[in-house]
Structures
1.
Amino acid sequence: MNTPNKLTLVRTLMVPIFVIFMYQDFSSARLIATVIFSVASFTDFLDGYIARKNNLVTNFGKFADPLADKILVCSALILLASVNEIPAWMVIVIIAREFTITGFRTIAASDNITIAASPLGKFKTITQLISLILLLTNIEFLKAPGIIIFYLATFFTVVSGIDYIIKNKSVLDLKNI
């Protein structure tokens, strides 16, 4: 197993640790959870960088990396919504988009078509991660910028989802639906 795939596995394994710390009731638990989430988020950048730089892209990585990202982000979204720190409807919109695009990519992959991440999709991910890190800290002066960036992330989540579908609509061969 190559280094990028190991990083992806580490990211996935960090999710339950992150969740456990979010449920703890001691003063620094939330900060520890935020650090775990931040490190896990950084591994997303790092594994992709290493894989592309060293030509270590694998089928496992193509499958596991986006899955690990979604597990991490969805965990944070659900936890923050469960304590009413972000609107639940926005979490539903984001998760629905992720399921939709994942399904779309699965259909494409069945025809040996790879749908690469777009600049809008990358901006979506960056704004989601920044907003979640700010909100996870639970530090009062970071909440307002965190929620503003979260609204922006939700907007780019929808726009990038529409963009993926429009640019790759040929994947949906209507005679096969």
Note: The helical segments are 3-22, 29-53, 59-82, 88-110, 119-137, 140-167.
2.
Amino acid sequence: MGLLDSFEKGLERAVNSAFAKTFRSGIQPVEIASALRSELDKKAAVVSRDRILAPNTFTVRLSPADDANMASLGNALNDELLTLVNKHATSQGYSFAGSVSITLTGDEQVSTGTLRVDSSTAQGGTVAWRGVVDVEGKRHPLVKARTVIGRGSDADITISDAGTSRKHVEILWDGERAMVRDLNSTNGTMLDGHKITEAALPPDSTVTIGRTAIVFRVVAHSAPPKPKLSADDATRAYNLRDGGPLA
């Protein structure tokens, strides 16, 4: 039995036992469940190697007749849908930015027997990403296009490591991609154990300067800042990410 079959049959059993009622025409509860499952799979986005973010807010648009039929089943249908959406997310390794909500509503633009599902992430906003770095137990959001890290007080992020230069390394982030650049430091910069001068910076990678580890991550949030790189740096970041030349 495939996952979808299991998902649908699970809801079908729940609905039949909870409501003991079906409709001869129009939308069936199991079709709503299948549509929600499909929306989860379609909109799931890879945030990092260890996290796949899925939408957590769903609006199911039904014809007025179908909406009236579903409303007659009461809150139990919504409870079953919530349970099965959470189970499907768990089975697929999806995570949510907040609690899951499902709203069924009538829409004159939807024909009887059909439905439309709209979804969103992070309390009603579309999913957006923020670059952050974890340094010495503290998380720093990358709110600027260039973030300089070093032991100097004039660095954007100051670290207490005598083995680093005053302005040791910079992280460039344009809201979608990142790169790391050594700033002619004395002791050099390592990326995941390899010495670099400049390189693309994938999520969950570790930059090491002196004895300090800097972990770059991309996290979900609802209102992203939009730092802007210069045209040259944006092109270089794109080329570095896709394996293009460094120069």
Note: Residues 1-5, 15-22, 243-247 have pLDDT under 50 and may be disordered.
